[in-house]
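Page header: ASSEMBLY MODEL / two components / 673 residues total.
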Amino acid sequence: MEAYRQEIIIGAVLAYMLFCVATGLWAMRRTHSSSDFFIAGRGLGPIVVALALFSSTLSGFGFVGGPGLVYSIGVSSFWMVVISSTGYAVGFFLVAKRIRMIAELRDCLSLPDVVAARYGSEAVRLLIAITIVLGVMGYLATQILAMAVVMQAILSGTETFANIGLVACVAISSAVLIFYCVTGGIIASVYTDVVQGGIMMIAGLLILITASSVFDGGLQEASAIILADDSEAIMPFGAAGVMASLGWFFVFGLGLAGQPHLITKMMMNRNMADNRRILPMSLFGYVMAALLWISIGIVMRAAVIDGVVPPLALPDDAASTFLSVFANPLLAGVVFAGLFAAIMSTSDAFLNIGTAAIIHDIPKAIRGHSVKNELFWARVVTVILAAVAAGFALYSHFQDATLVALLGAFGWGTFAASIFPVVAVGLNWRGATVPGAVTAIVAALSINFFVQLAGITPPWGISGPLIAFISSMILFIGISLVTRRPELPDDIDRVLDI
Amino acid sequence: MHRSIIHWIFAICTAMGLILLAIALAEPTPNAGGLPHPDYPGMVIGGDGAERLADIGILAFLFQSLLLLLIVSLSILGISEERRSPKFMAYMVASFIFMLFIWWQMYSNHQLFLETGETGYFLGFPTATAWQVYGTWLCAIPLIILYSVGFRQFVFSEEDEAKFQALLEESRNQS
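Prediction written out in full:
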């Protein structure tokens, strides 16, 4: 079997891509309106929503970047993972019920729709839509680039594709992504999420078992090797230090309820009472899948220190090196398919919310109505958005990484800082005002942009998104408290009572 | 109560902002955010843990304690005001104490290691890290149990569902 390792991996990835194409075609038959395209007609069952939620949370970053971070900075990066229970809990307490109620009551297709209904303000809708578009471009470009780089690494191991270029890999991966996003919209996305979620949970468990067998003494021996080399790396705050760790707890924990691609999925369930089951199921899935992140990272750091494997050229090579050195070829195939699944489903979710912002929300905020024939334009804009993101990805790789890095800064942290106060707090507090919301969003965007553009590195590992998040929370509540309490429409007022 | 909980959240956020400012103004140690590993490119080491916690350890402990309080306060905000019974509030206070206990165990076990250089292991990790990995994952379990098991009592009762259905009906009739 070892002799066919590369073929098994390629077969698994190819099988997954064919599955994506087939799912796109199947979902196309179920996509009759923009409501189907963007929010699956609010008709999804609890298992589908639960798996879609957790698998969208763990993008390709969880498979490649996560283990790489543990290899690089040790336990510090665990904080991004172990906050998941708190993050999901806060997200469900604050958002799941009211976003679903307002979505049904006002027939909302997107997060900016919900925000506009809550605040009665097109300015807030516009700002949230712009934030989403900026974030989506950065996220998408990095996801497409990651997918192409992994594809090139896999294919170049074969004789036939030994010299395949990155441009060809971007073209192939973008083509599959565009096909299934355009045909099936969010329905295709959530059903591939189900498969992805299943793959990720199985892979997480099998990887933990494999990682535990690398050293005779299991994970404890790996921990002891790291402890002997640098004790802080395996202690709770890791090599990056206490404030970097606690900052991640804050931004990744609370910030989960500010991620538009996640909370939009809270609008899609058929029955609101299903939320009681969706929360524990999502969390269970995430914990299972995150075992991969933790176990690969720890074992690879220990293996390099112990001389079992040579030092890695890049921390992000941790997962692929682990799979090629320690994992059974079948398991490696499953994990690589899972990696592609993670990237594809996250990309699809971002394409979906980005498209909604462009054809639905920005025109509504500016002209008072969205474009005609939304479903047609949704498909057109999906293609354009993916093509532009692929272009960004290539430009970033070959010319200048600044642009994508800058847009990438509009990732999780910026979504958290600008959307959490306005949505998660605003949906639960009548006193939230438009000036408070506008100030919070503008401050969050400005702080993140400024820290990134000026190349500022705050001391003690404090991150720009942490500063932005705390500032936006203080400004949102503070300004709302000192501005006139708004008169809410009767239906929204009654929703806030429930 | 609604007003006081938002004031409470505002006060917590402001206090966290001030603590963050105080930490940012403290003179950082060379290894505050880690140092490059001398032998392996791409790896970072933490170095002397006691040194980098000496000046800001207490502030960091307070920051995280306030964050846990913020999490519980936000969860309370997410529950309809009329369902915030004394029983519910007692449960939330207990949840906060449970979270704080886990955080304290993690922090104090780390301090103990920094003082003695010795540690036990639990399920693959040094004791302090095991509190972080398993304890932090488990610390929100009381909130999740309340949400799932107490869903019909606190989050979305049959009465709430009826109210919402009536609102939907009205809205459809009007349009």
